[in-house]
């Protein structure tokens, strides 16, 4: 009997401890998702004073909406453009910052500082960098005798400009996780590798990279989530233009909800976003898990 | 040879990475009419900062941001500590399910739920309030997992010893676990502060008064009130002003910042 009581007590303690977090988690993650799921089957826009059930009309409309497909494709390209590059760069940065003989702290600071700069401030600075004629990039292009380019005004260039900027913003943040990961690799492994005369490439391929796999998985998930989350810059730089060439899913939700006030559609879009993120997370979690060597 | 090329390349990258900041700082001190020119001269001025300070209530924005960031941090520290202890040290009914529920928040963060959470805040009548900006972030799955990892490394013997001394459960948490996890708290605190200092979309949506607007939203409104490039110097000055406090803190505590991350065993 006493054992059962003790067990019950631990259960109660644990739930009480989790309660504060759980309340906010339910109120701002699970409840809103469920509400949104329901609202996504309703017509709820400026023309409908009371939302009414319209089945899968919003989803149907979404599938037929060219802008939706464009925005989704943009976001996928944005992820493909930013995630692998910034993660690879972060690894290179960490390995260098870990070993650099001179100016170690200067190097780390230079790589890392964009993380602590608000995206909205970044957008202001990079807007000036990308401005034709007067911008920094134009000046540099001039030195090389190249013609001027309108980076943000051209549909073909704007995505590249955004991808580059986001890599600049994020790589240093991911570097920190790799620095932490590098510290956890036992020095003995490297010593025995050097005794056997392994080349530095072999050491990287056989020791460093596999042992950093958990870090890579963690960082990739953050990077991927971020590629759907980072939209602040669009407000300042392009508003999703020209012709939606730089528009991303979350910004489209923002426009649909707060500019067009189409709540049913904004809900349907939000559901698509949530499903997408959960799918990729599940894929990364279960798919990559098997290949990882936990130390 | 290859090593040399890499070294030069990586230093080059550092310079490239620093360029946007240096350029913004440089421009913010330039006289207005020289802001867009690349000709070198020794003309520097503080006019831009004075103008910006007069043109928008940045002092109020600073206070708002400070209050929001502090409020979130304190709440997160409390909720995360309690939850992390439960996950790290207790066996209880429903643990796995709850763990997955927490994991979901990592995948679907509040930032993505701008529209649904707007509706929640409207129902709570908390639109355009500071507490409204803070509330969705009071629970942090990231913080919980980070602390759980640290608490797990703390040997159980310490807890038992404390219990022998007659410490209550709360005293154990407060005297044993919290002090030993200090580096993790610092790491998480720095991440949280820089994250919420920089947050923009959510406060943009739910605030519409000067009393509640944080720096980021204030900066965006200020920057967007200019249409042409003629005010670059002023926009740069405003941008530098907003960046400055956090950047300064980072430069001062750089070592702690990076080390605390490394030692907290973030993997």
From TrEMBL, chain A:
Domain of life (superkingdom): Bacteria
Membrane topology: Multi-pass membrane protein
ABC transmembrane type-1 domain mapped to chain residues: 72-284
GO biological process, any: transmembrane transport
Record's keyword terms, sorted: Cell membrane, Membrane, Transmembrane, Transmembrane helix, Transport
InterPro entries documented for this protein: ABC_transporter_permease, MetI-like, MetI-like_sf
Transmembrane segments: 12-34, 76-98, 110-129, 158-182, 203-224, 265-286
SUPFAM superfamilies for this protein: MalF N-terminal region-like (SSF160964), MetI-like (SSF161098)
Cell compartments where the protein resides: Cell membrane
Main localisation: membrane
GO annotation, cellular component aspect: plasma membrane
PANTHER family: ABC TRANSPORTER PERMEASE PROTEIN, INNER MEMBRANE ABC TRANSPORTER PERMEASE PROTEIN YCJO
Family: Belongs to the binding-protein-dependent transport system permease family.
Descriptive protein name: Sugar ABC transporter permease
Automatic annotation (TrEMBL), chain B:
Keyword Magnesium: no
Any single GO CC term annotated in Swiss-Prot or TrEMBL for this entry: plasma membrane
Regions that span the bilayer: 7-26, 61-85, 97-119, 131-151, 172-195, 235-253
Coiled-coil ranges per UniProt: none
InterPro entries per the UniProt record, alphabetical: MetI-like (IPR000515), MetI-like_sf (IPR035906)
Keyword Acyltransferase listed: no
Pfam family, one: BPD_transp_1
Domain of life: Bacteria
Any one Gene Ontology BP term: transmembrane transport
Protein name: Carbohydrate ABC transporter permease
Organism: Brevibacillus antibioticus
């Amino acid at each position: 009997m006493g054992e059962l009581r003790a067990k019950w007590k631990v259960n109660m303690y644990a739930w009480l401890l989790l309660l504060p977090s759980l309340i906010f988690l339910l109120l701002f993650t699970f409840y809103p998702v469920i509400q949104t799921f329901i609202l996504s089957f309703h017509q709820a826009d400026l023309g409908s004073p009371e939302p009414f059930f319209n089945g899968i009309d919003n989803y149907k409309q979404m599938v037929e909406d060219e802008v939706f497909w464009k925005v989704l494709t943009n976001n996928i390209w944005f992820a493909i453009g930013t995630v692998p590059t910034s993660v690879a760069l972060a690894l290179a940065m960490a390995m260098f910052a870990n070993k650099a003989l001179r100016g170690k702290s200067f190097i780390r600071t230079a790589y890392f500082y964009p993380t602590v700069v608000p995206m909205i401030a970044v957008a202001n600075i990079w807007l000036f960098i990308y401005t034709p004629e007067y911008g920094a990039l134009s000046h540099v292009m001039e030195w090389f005798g190249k013609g001027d380019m309108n980076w943000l005004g051209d549909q073909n260039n704007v995505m590249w400009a955004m991808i580059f900027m986001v890599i600049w913003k994020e790589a240093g943040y991911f570097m920190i996780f790799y620095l932490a990961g590098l510290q956890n690799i036992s020095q003995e492994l490297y010593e025995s590798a050097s005794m056997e005369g392994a080349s530095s490439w072999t050491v990287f391929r056989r020791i460093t990279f596999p042992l950093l796999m958990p870090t890579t998985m963690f960082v990739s998930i953050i990077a991927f989530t971020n590629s759907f989350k980072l939209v602040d810059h669009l407000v300042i730089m392009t508003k999703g233009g020209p012709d939606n060439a730089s528009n991303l899913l979350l910004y489209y939700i923002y426009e649909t909800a707060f500019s067009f006030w189409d709540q049913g559609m904004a809900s349907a879009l939000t559901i698509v976003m949530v499903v997408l993120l959960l799918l990729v997370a599940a894929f990364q979690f279960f798919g990559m898990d098997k290949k990882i060597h936990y130390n | 040879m290859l090593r040399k090329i890499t070294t030069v390349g990586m230093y080059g990258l550092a310079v490239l990475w620093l360029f946007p900041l240096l350029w913004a700082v440089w421009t913010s001190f330039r006289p207005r009419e020289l802001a867009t020119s690349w000709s070198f001269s020794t003309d520097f001025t503080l006019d831009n900062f004075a103008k910006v300070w007069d043109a928008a209530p940045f002092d109020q924005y600073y206070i708002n941001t400070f209050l929001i960031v502090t409020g979130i941090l304190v709440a997160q520290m409390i909720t995360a500590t309690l939850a992390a202890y439960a996950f790290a040290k207790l066996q209880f009914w429903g643990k796995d399910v709850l763990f997955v529920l927490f994991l979901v928040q990592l995948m679907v963060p509040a930032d993505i739920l701008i529209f649904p959470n707007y509706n929640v805040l409207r129902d709570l009548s908390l639109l355009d309030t500071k507490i409204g900006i803070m509330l969705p972030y009071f629970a942090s799955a990231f913080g919980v997992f980070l602390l759980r990892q640290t608490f797990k490394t703390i040997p159980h013997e310490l807890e038992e010893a404390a219990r022998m001394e007659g410490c209550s459960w709360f005293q154990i948490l407060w005297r044993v676990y919290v002090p030993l996890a200090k580096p993790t708290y610092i790491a998480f605190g720095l991440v949280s502060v820089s994250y919420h200092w920089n947050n923009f979309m959510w406060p943009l949506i739910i605030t519409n008064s000067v009393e509640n607007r944080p720096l980021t939203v204030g900066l965006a409104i200020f920057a967007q009130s200019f249409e042409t490039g003629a005010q670059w110097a002023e926009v740069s000055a405003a941008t530098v002003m907003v960046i400055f406090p956090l950047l300064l803190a980072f430069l001062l505590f750089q070592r702690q910042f990076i080390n605390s991350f490394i030692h907290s065993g973030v993997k």
